[in-house]
C-alpha cells in the first residue's frame, strides 16, 4: 500500500517542517529523495537521517527563485516521478503595510519558485509519459485571513497554477494537485511569531492553535501522510483538486 519503490521524488524546502516530514515519509515508502534547499545544512541532516534508516537521497543547494540554477538541478536529477513544490515564505501585513519589496520577495519564492520547478520538471515527466505534482497552497488561498495580503495572493496563485497545469498535462499522464494546510507547527510558524509578535509569543501561539476548531495546530507528519496518498499510484484518479487539511478551519469556524 502506498509504495513509492523505484520512484524519484523532488521536494523543495525539504530541510524543515512540512517538506522535511514529506521527505522522511516518502523515503520510508521507498522513494529516492532529492531535496532542493536554500539551507543546505538542514537538507544534509535530513538526507543523513534518510540514509541511516536505509533510504537514498541527495541534497541540491539552490534557490528556487533562480531559474538557471533550477534547470541545472533537474538536468542533474534526470528523472522525476514526483515533484512536491513545498518551499515557501510568509509575510504578515495588510495592503498598506506590504511594500513593493515585500510583495516581490513573497511572489518570487512562493509563485515563481513553483513555476521554475514546474518549468524544469514537466518536460522530463512528459518524456517519461507520467508524473505527479503536488503544490503546497494554504487555507489563505480560500478564506480571508487578517494581515496576510501578499501571502494569501501567492497561495491563491498556487491554487490557480495547480488547475492550469492539471488541465494542460492531462494528455501527458501528469497529475497535479495541491494541499491547503491551516496552521501546522513548524519552524515557519515559530519564526513568524518570533518576528512579528516578539513580546507575546505564548499568547499568539495559543491564539493560533485555537483558530483551528479542533483546538490545535496540525503536525507536519499529518500533512506528509496526505501528500503520500496524493503522490501514490493509489490516487491515480485524482487530479486538478485542492485538499484542505485544516482541523475544520474552512468549514467549521462559526
Ligand atoms: N506551517 C504552516 O502553518 C503552513 C500552513 C499552510 C501552508 N504552509 C506552506 O507549507 C510550506 C512549508 O512550510 P513550513 O511551515 O514547513 O516552512 P519551513 O520554514 O519550516 O520550511 C520551509 C523550507 O523552505 C526552504 N526555502 C525557503 N525559501 C527557499 C528558496 N527560495 N529556495 C529553496 N528553499 C527555500 C527553507 O530553507 C525551509 O527549509 C510553505 O509553502 C508554506 O507556505 C505552511
UniProtKB/TrEMBL annotation:
**Which keywords does UniProt give here?**
Oxidoreductase
Which GO terms fall under molecular function for this chain's record? oxidoreductase activity
Name the domain of life this protein comes from. Bacteria
Q: Does the keyword Oxidoreductase apply?
A: yes
- Pfam families assigned: adh_short_C2
InterPro entries xref list: KR_dom (IPR057326), NAD(P)-bd_dom_sf (IPR036291), Sc_DH/Rdtase_CS (IPR020904), SDR_DHRS6-like (IPR051122), SDR_fam (IPR002347)
Q: Which family does it belong to?
A: Belongs to the short-chain dehydrogenases/reductases (SDR) family.
Descriptive protein name? NAD(P)-dependent dehydrogenase (Short-subunit alcohol dehydrogenase family)
Amino acid at each position: 500500500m502506498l509504495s513509492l519503490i523505484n520512484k524519484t521524488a523532488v521536494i523543495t524546502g525539504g530541510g524543515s517542517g512540512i517538506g522535511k516530514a514529506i521527505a522522511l515519509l516518502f523515503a520510508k515508502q521507498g522513494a529516492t529523495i532529492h531535496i532542493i534547499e536554500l539551507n543546505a545544512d538542514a537538507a544534509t541532516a535530513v538526507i543523513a537521517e534518510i540514509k541511516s534508516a536505509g533510504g537514498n537521497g541527495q541534497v541540491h543547494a539552490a534557490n528556487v527563485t533562480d531559474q538557471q540554477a533550477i534547470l541545472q538541478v533537474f538536468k542533474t536529477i534526470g528523472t522525476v516521478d514526483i515533484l512536491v513544490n513545498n518551499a515557501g515564505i510568509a509575510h504578515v501585513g495588510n495592503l498598506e503595510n506590504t511594500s513593493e519589496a515585500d510583495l516581490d520577495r513573497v511572489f518570487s519564492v512562493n509563485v515563481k519558485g513553483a513555476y521554475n520547478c514546474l518549468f524544469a520538471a514537466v518536460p522530463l515527466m512528459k518524456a517519461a509519459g507520467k508524473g505527479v505534482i503536488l503544490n503546497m497552497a494554504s487555507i489563505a488561498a480560500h478564506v480571508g485571513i487578517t494581515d496576510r495580503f501578499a501571502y494569501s495572493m501567492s497561495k491563491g496563485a498556487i491554487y490557480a497554477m495547480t488547475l492550469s497545469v492539471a488541465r494542460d498535462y492531462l494528455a501527458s499522464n501528469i497529475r497535479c494537485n495541491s494541499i491547503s494546510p491551516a496552521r501546522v507547527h513548524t519552524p515557519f510558524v515559530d519564526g513568524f511569531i518570533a518576528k512579528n509578535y516578539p513580546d507575546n509569543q505564548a499568547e499568539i501561539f495559543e491564539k493560533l492553535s485555537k483558530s483551528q476548531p479542533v483546538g490545535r495546530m496540525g503536525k507536519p507528519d499529518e500533512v506528509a501522510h496526505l501528500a503520500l496518498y496524493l503522490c501514490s499510484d493509489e490516487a491515480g484518479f485524482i487530479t486538478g483538486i485542492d485538499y484542505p487539511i485544516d482541523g475544520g478551519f474552512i468549514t467549521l469556524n462559526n
